Structure formats: C-alpha cells, structure tokens
C-alpha cells in the first residue's frame, strides 16, 4: 500500500497547533517548570538503558496531545505498518524500504516479490561472519602469505558515512586491524591513505550500492593501479572485496565470488550500514559486536512498531521537532554527543536526515506549502561548548538541541567522566533557565560592581534561556546501545517524512550536480569549453590557465 497523501496543514490538529502556538509562544520554560514539580518526570521516557528527557521543550500537555492527534490525522499508524511490512513506500523508485529487515530475527518473515528476504539476509550475515573471522584471525592472507594488517573501505555517502561513523564510535571494541576510509574523489585523499600502506598486507573493501559512483570507482581504480605496481593481476581477486547490488560490474573488476557481498534495492544507501555495507565495521570490531549492533537496532524497531505513540521515543522526538520546524520556524537542529567516540555522528545524520527529508514536493507531486527537513549539525561536547555554543545561548536563532550522554565512560576514568557529564547537565539547565537581569545584577554586585558601570555591562550578561533541548542519557556506549540510537534517528526521519507528506527515501536532488560534473569534466579534459553561463565559463578558463 502507498503512503497516504495528506497535506498536514489541512488537518484539524495543524490548525489547532497554529492557534496553540500563538497562545503559548512567549511562555518561558522556567514558568512551565515552576508550575509543575513533576514536569521532569512527566515528560521523560525510560526504555531499556535509555532515559529520554524531553521536558526542557516548549511544550505542554496540550501541545503533545495536538501533535499526537496530528500523527493520527496524517495516517502514521498505517504508514508504520507499510514501512515494516515491505510496502513500496519509496514510490518514486518503486521500492520497498526495508533496512529494518536487515536486523530482523531469524525465523521472521518479510516478503518482497514473494521471497522471504529474512532468509537472504541471514545467508549474507553468515558470509560476513566467516569472511570477517578469517580476516581477523589471519587465516585469510595477502598475496605474499602474510596476514592482513590494514583494511581500506572505499565508498562514499551511505557507503562510507555509516561504516566510518560506527567504526569510530566503537573504537573501544576494536581489534588489531587498522581501518582506513577513502571517500572523496579528491586524489589527495586516496594518496594520503595509500602512501603509508603495504599492498602485501592490505585488504580493500569496495562499497557501492550501484557500483557506478564516480568517486568510488575512481578511488578503486587508483588503488588497483597502485596495487598492481607490486602484485600481479591474479591477486586482485583476493585482496579486494566488494559490496553492491551490481554483481556484473564487480565481476568486471576481477573480484573473486567469495569476496563479493550482495545488497538489495530495498535498502537505501544511507540506511545500509546494517547490511554487508557494514563489512568494515564487522572486520573492525568482530562479528559478535556487529551482530549486537543489529540487535540493538532491532530492539528499537520493536519499540517503535509496538509502543503507543505517547511513549514512543522516535515518535515523540519527531513530533517535537515538527513543532519547532513548522510552528516556531526553527531551521536547524544541533546534535551534541558528549562522547568523543561519536565525533562522526552528526555528519552521519546529516546524510540520513537531510538527504531523506530535504524535499519540497509533496507525495502528490505538488510544491509543499510548509517547511520540511531540518538542517542538522553538531560536534561532540565539550569541544562544541568552546566553539559555537555562544550562538545557541545568546544568538537570535532558536536551535533545538539533542544532548546525548552516557552514565558510564568506557575507560572508566571517573574524574574525567564526572567533569564531562557535569558540563552535559549544566548546558541543558543553562539553556533552559538562562540568567535574568536580576540574577546578573546580584552577581555583579557581589563582585563589587555598581551604578553606571553595572548597568552598562548588564545587558550583555543576560541569558534569555528558554532554549529547547532533549536529553538522551544512555547507560553505556556499546554496540547494542549504538544500534538502538541510530535506529531511533532512522525512525524519527520516517515519522517526519510521513507528517510532511514527502518521499523520504529517494534523493533525486543529488543527481543534477553529478550530471553537470560529467559535462564539465569533458570541458576540462578537452581543449574546447562548451556553453556555460559567464561565471562558470570564466572560472573554467581561469582553472585551465
Ligand atoms: O549521494 C547520493 C548517493 O546516491 C547516496 O544516497 C549514496 O549513499 C551515495 O550516493 C553512494 O552511492 P553508491 O553506494 O551507489 O556508490
């Protein structure tokens, strides 16, 4: 069944939310907290080892009721059924959207074109397991009989961001193999990586759903050429592995079938780390940990699918984000993990969220009359505090922010962890409360300041507060909890796409630049430059010197 095409702005809930926004927009969070002692408890959810506090948002019971009504009016319950059931909800590409099937349990049944894809998923998982174990144990060797020491993942977009983010996030659990990730078509990226590698002991994993992506193929060819400077052609078969839906192209590259991992068109690139696209993850942390990552995601899938919306973490976070995006006009959202391990998390989510919901045509093919996808950005705390938090605290823009932190650190340094987490809690409290003119006055007076001097400085030291945050406090960064965290955001993307009446699972917007780049490459390589606007023309002449 297709997703319904309901313009959210015509729903009763939307109209009521608009009126409710006008009534409540100037209410301060301080006021909401002082009126209700139980607010922190009331607006929080405990699920497995996740504690999600969404009380520091500009919401009341009415806001939530209306947002939940909106979810019903846009047909979210049926949409969720279609999403998990394999309906062709990626309508512009005629595909199902089944990354959830990649973490299904053995014995589950999900059918695509009459085939139970869970069986296929488990066949590929078995292959990932044996391949991974052979590489880690050293049983699988390079062409001179030495065990592999380095692994290079060659891919871009979803074929890079997921693997590199998770490999970094779960570094604590990693083995002896050194991981490298090449993505950019910038030759300096690939050459910088291969310059220190020994071809005898390096395994290359080419990841490309289509196997036609310019960046990935250029990097793979450059590496192949470099490899052939030391080894003969026949060794390509075993020094390279490939993950793709395009088995024909892999064959042309010369990779042995035991090193080839299929994927399916019902998995979108940006949701694919759970498939063999995650081969580098499995190699880096071992198959058991990779499987635990999948298990965590599966638990979140079950939570999302089966929990009433008022207690459903992805639904609640998605709806609150709609509230700011569509009623407050907030254009961006920051995601701030308080762990250095998640340093690539917001870059990963930028693709997931912005490639999915960066759409301006609705599901009926008309231009939308409301805002859609939010701009996502962020860096780990506490570094971000010393970089851009000033603007979140005292700038003119409203930036709803997710704070993600852990009860336990991985290396167990209590002193550091307490300091880190003190900052974590302090920031959300400061963003919420701010500092009033009276408080600033008292503070300055206690420092001995008074009169005109005090009055002059006072306005600069006032913090408005009332800045919304969500706090995700998780027990510990483990493969399992990371899987659940990623799946949480995946489902948030889905919910928002349904509400905004857009197709979240295509990405036509990245095609135009690719097409033009092909033409311009001809202009650069040939003596003649084709027809362009005067700016591009001038730039090309200048570039060609
Ligand atoms: O940037 C567009 C895109 O199609 C992404 O959606 C995808 O993750 C990336 O390119 C890489 O594509 P492929 O895996 O086919 O090389």
TrEMBL record:
<dbReference type="GO" id="GO:0006096">
    <property type="term" value="P:glycolytic process"/>
</dbReference>
<dbReference type="InterPro" id="IPR018189">
    <property type="entry name" value="Phosphoglucose_isomerase_CS"/>
</dbReference>
<keyword id="KW-0312">Gluconeogenesis</keyword>
<dbReference type="GO" id="GO:0048029">
    <property type="term" value="F:monosaccharide binding"/>
</dbReference>
<dbReference type="GO" id="GO:0006094">
    <property type="term" value="P:gluconeogenesis"/>
</dbReference>
<dbReference type="Pfam" id="PF00342">
    <property type="entry name" value="PGI"/>
</dbReference>
<comment type="similarity">
    <text>Belongs to the GPI family.</text>
</comment>
<dbReference type="InterPro" id="IPR035482">
    <property type="entry name" value="SIS_PGI_2"/>
</dbReference>
<dbReference type="GO" id="GO:0051156">
    <property type="term" value="P:glucose 6-phosphate metabolic process"/>
</dbReference>
<dbReference type="InterPro" id="IPR001672">
    <property type="entry name" value="G6P_Isomerase"/>
</dbReference>
<dbReference type="InterPro" id="IPR023096">
    <property type="entry name" value="G6P_Isomerase_C"/>
</dbReference>
<comment type="pathway">
    <text>Carbohydrate degradation; glycolysis; D-glyceraldehyde 3-phosphate and glycerone phosphate from D-glucose: step 2/4.</text>
</comment>
<dbReference type="InterPro" id="IPR046348">
    <property type="entry name" value="SIS_dom_sf"/>
</dbReference>
<keyword id="KW-0963">Cytoplasm</keyword>
<comment type="function">
    <text>Catalyzes the reversible isomerization of glucose-6-phosphate to fructose-6-phosphate.</text>
</comment>
<dbReference type="InterPro" id="IPR035476">
    <property type="entry name" value="SIS_PGI_1"/>
</dbReference>
<dbReference type="GO" id="GO:0005829">
    <property type="term" value="C:cytosol"/>
</dbReference>
<keyword id="KW-0413">Isomerase</keyword>
<dbReference type="GO" id="GO:0097367">
    <property type="term" value="F:carbohydrate derivative binding"/>
</dbReference>
<feature type="active site">
    <location>
        <position position="386"/>
    </location>
</feature>
<feature type="active site" description="Proton donor">
    <location>
        <position position="355"/>
    </location>
</feature>
<keyword id="KW-0324">Glycolysis</keyword>
<comment type="pathway">
    <text>Carbohydrate biosynthesis; gluconeogenesis.</text>
</comment>
<protein>
    <recommendedName>
        <fullName>Glucose-6-phosphate isomerase</fullName>
        <ecNumber>5.3.1.9</ecNumber>
    </recommendedName>
</protein>
<feature type="active site">
    <location>
        <position position="514"/>
    </location>
</feature>
<dbReference type="GO" id="GO:0004347">
    <property type="term" value="F:glucose-6-phosphate isomerase activity"/>
</dbReference>
